[in-house]
Design brief:
Layout lengths: L13 H11 L3 H4 L19 H8 L16 H22 L3
């Protein structure tokens, strides 16, 4: 199995960063072919979390961990979200073993 390609770029201009990443990997045509799975994880957020997110965190509204955040979560929804998260992390871990 072929190894995965990873490229990291840091800068203020998100579009320029994405373009640079593809350039580093030989161009978008070299990376994305028919049947290829592509995961882009741009950390193109902000230098600081949003005021609303800080307020939620300070109030202890921590998503499915507490059952509250931007919505109220039932116990069933919390369990389903934890299961989904765990399964996703297992898939990532298995994929990384193939690097």
């Amino acid at each position: 199995m072929a190894k995965s390609q990873v490229a990291l770029v840091k800068g203020e201009d998100t579009q320029a960063n994405v373009t640079k990443v593809f350039d580093l990997m030989g161009g978008v045509q070299n990376v994305i072919r028919e049947g290829t799975t592509v995961i882009l994880k741009p950390n193109a957020g902000h230098a600081e979390p949003s005021k609303l997110l800080v307020e939620k965190m300070e109030a202890g509204d921590l998503g499915f961990k507490t059952g509250k955040e931007f919505q109220e979560w039932t116990e069933e929804e919390i369990a389903a979200s934890r299961k989904n998260l765990t399964e996703g992390l297992i898939k990532v871990a298995k994929a990384l073993d193939r690097l």
